[in-house]
Design goal:
- The chain has 130 residues and is mainly α.
- The chain has one domain.
- 49% of the residues lie in helices and 8% in strands.
- It has a two-stranded antiparallel ribbon.
- A hairpin with a 2-residue loop joins β1 and β2.
- α1 runs antiparallel to α3.
- It is globular, with a radius of gyration of 17 Å.
- The termini are far apart.
């Protein structure tokens, strides 16, 4: 039987492949922390200046959520440690800053339904309205 759990977008930090996945818990935590919608926080992240703090915070939230989810799987739990802001700050440098940001933006993008899926629920199933 295949594993149908969402995996998220892979990103390598400190030589370990981790996955960014915007779950409902993540969305709620980010919106509570920033007092903005997730879309507004992501828009702030995409701005040209002053994004370092937002990037670091989002990575901490995403990695710690992954660690919590993986703790339920004893075989994988040891690979996924809870991280602090300082540790994440050490994981992100000029060499991978934009790679990490792009992974967050991709993870955010795949968390949303495609526009045609929202408008036409029959499109995916191949049904047509007649």
């Amino acid at each position: 039987m295949s594993d149908l759990r969402p995996r998220g977008i892979p990103v390598v930090l400190d030589g370990v492949e981790r996955h960014f996945l915007f779950t409902l818990n993540i969305i709620d935590e980010i919106q509570d922390r920033y007092g903005k919608t997730l879309h507004e926080v992501i828009a702030d992240l995409a701005k040209a200046d002053g994004t370092e703090h937002t990037l670091r915070n989002l990575v901490v939230i995403l990695l710690n959520d992954e660690a919590q989810r993986m703790a339920k799987n004893p075989g994988e739990a040891s690979r996924y440690a809870v991280v602090t802001e300082t540790e994440v700050g050490e994981m992100i440098g000029l060499d991978n800053y934009y790679t990490v940001m792009a992974a967050i933006l991709r993870a955010y993008g795949i968390s949303l339904p495609e526009p045609e899926e929202e408008d036409d629920p029959n499109r995916k199933s191949g049904q047509t309205n007649r």
